[in-house]
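A quick aside before the break. I want you to see a complete sequence-to-structure record at least once, exactly as it would be stored in a machine-readable document. Don't worry about memorizing anything.
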Amino acid sequence: MRAFLRFFDAAFGRYAATSALATATDFALAYCLHVLEASAALATFVGCVGGGGVAFALSRRWTFQAGSARALPQLLRFLFVWATSALLNSTGVPALLPWVGSFAAAWAFVRAAVYLGWNYPLSRWFVFANEKAAAQLNAR
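That is the input. The structure line, written in tokens, reads:
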């Protein structure tokens, strides 16, 4: 139960708001490109790039309040999580599209699954982890 509560702490609420803004950026770009007849994979990937920029900036300063830590290591970890997220989204949307029939529905389902199963946990406990808290845990 404690692990469940730690997953849905105050940072989760801030991450939800940050993600909503990043996702709106992501979807606007992806949908516009799709309407302009870009492939579903390319549209999704470009949307992820725009949304990723918004997500990193807000997550570092506000969501996880990790602005005092060194930015470069965070950025490198973020790029790893972002790149794998973009890959999961860019392959998941076109894979689901034939069964769902709607780009928006396929996009929303895949984004939600990747968000809860990959992006938040890794952002919280890997990318923007509190280094002092991690050191204290290792000392115990």
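Two observations worth writing down. The two ends are 21 Å apart (CA to CA). The mean pLDDT is 87. We'll return to this after the break.
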